[in-house]
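step=encode ok
step=design start
structure_in=
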């Protein structure tokens, strides 16, 4: 981690899950990664909220939105600029698949630019939103778009030295989404600079 006044590039990654089984439910896998100028990736924190299958759809979406907003405020309180919110792309059909797609679109709406002339809901944050397809995340993190959750976890642990041990795969996927978003942004920069 850099401490000599340098500021990191901050990404808020999310692995949106909507159906929590059991009494505990599913974690809201949203966290904060700092990408320092020296190449170090630092896990800065996460939120500890959960959604349950018995929660209403609007409650689940509100829980996710509040988690993302909480992390943005944490980063800004450190005087860090949030480069983007990264969300795993929605897939699937049927009730939970449609709900997942709605959540991804809602998070993207929360990130849109602020327009002071228009009353808007949800309240925009003015931060870029990067949608990361699951196979792209796996390919960027492990080199294979068909990698297993175990492979993703192993690579993420190697790439982020201060990462704590998690008891659920969603957290490793969340960190992988952040790493993939950073790499996608770097690719985009290279293309723009080449033009």
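sequence_out=
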């Amino acid at each position: 981690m850099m401490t000599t006044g340098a500021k990191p590039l901050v990404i808020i990654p999310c692995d949106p899950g909507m159906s929590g089984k059991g009494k505990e439910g599913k974690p809201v896998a949203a966290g904060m990664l700092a990408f320092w100028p020296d190449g170090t990736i630092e896990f800065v924190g996460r939120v500890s909220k959960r959604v349950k299958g018995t929660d209403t759809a609007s409650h689940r979406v509100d829980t996710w939105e509040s988690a993302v907003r909480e992390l943005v405020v944490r980063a800004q309180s450190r005087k860090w600029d949030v480069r983007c919110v990264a969300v795993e792309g929605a897939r699937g059909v049927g009730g939970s698949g449609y709900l997942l797609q709605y959540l991804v679109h809602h998070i993207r709406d929360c990130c849109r630019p602020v327009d002071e002339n228009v009353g808007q809901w949800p309240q925009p944050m003015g931060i870029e939103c990067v949608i990361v397809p699951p196979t792209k995340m796996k390919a960027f993190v492990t080199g294979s778009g068909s990698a297993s959750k175990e492979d993703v976890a192993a690579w993420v642990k190697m790439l982020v030295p201060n990462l704590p041990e998690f008891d659920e795969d969603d957290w490793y996927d969340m960190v992988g989404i952040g790493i993939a978003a950073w790499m996608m942004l770097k690719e985009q920069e290279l293309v723009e600079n080449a033009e």
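step=design ok
step=annotate ok -> The longest helix spans residues 169-194.
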